[in-house]
Amino acid sequence: MQIKKAIGFILRKTDIGEGNVMIDAFLKDLQDLTYSKYKLKIFGILKSKKRNPIVVEIGNYISVDFYYKENSEIHNVKEINLIERFYDIKKDYENFYHFSKIIQITNLMTRFEKDLKEIYELLYYASFFIQNYLENSKQELKSLLESMEVSFWDLIFLFYMVRLLNISGYVGDVEKCSSCGQKIQEKAKWQESMYFLCEQCDLTANRNDFFYKEIILLILKNKFINFVYKLKEFLVKQKNIEMSEFLERMMNKMNLITSDLLERPIKLFSD
Question: pTM value?
């Protein structure tokens, strides 16, 4: 048995009685610099007079020392401290609802294994970007989103999901047909997960699916703010497209893909 020191996120929390809590924690090991998910048991935190139970809220960024036992599914916590609560997200129910979707989908898409650095960094940068956006009210980005008549949360979730699916191996080479390998031009057919066919391989290929493919490419090639600017430029060039409705249809497709991959409905809050 060894003591591990780590920092990271609480992805799931379960009250297991007698003031004890079980959490799924997505952690960066400060000693060997690995990125893994662990199931941790915290004794008496909900009844403690010395420790604030706020520290075990879902979505918190924490530091933790825990007793690691190889081949054990559950590890006991020695000490846990709060680094960032993301107060500007959690103080508003709607913001916390959307942030919880990101936390929960990350939990469901990850396993208790190592080598999860890319997903950890995606969650890290997304969480602090969202906090900074809400805290400082980035006026330029806010005005841009208002001009597009789309919500910040819709775009950030779309961006996050495409990046998460790409890291997890569910996104193919969207520039090429997944059947014949030729570059897709003008029309496409969106297949399962994030693969596309050209019109030669699927006669139902259409312009809308081609546009979805182009938006996915924008997400994969740009940071979020640059993506928003380029998305607006792209949609403005397309005639007869109403931005908010078009993006809503794309979000619906993404939700179906996510649900199929998980093979179960997404629960936004733990039991």
Answer: 0.89
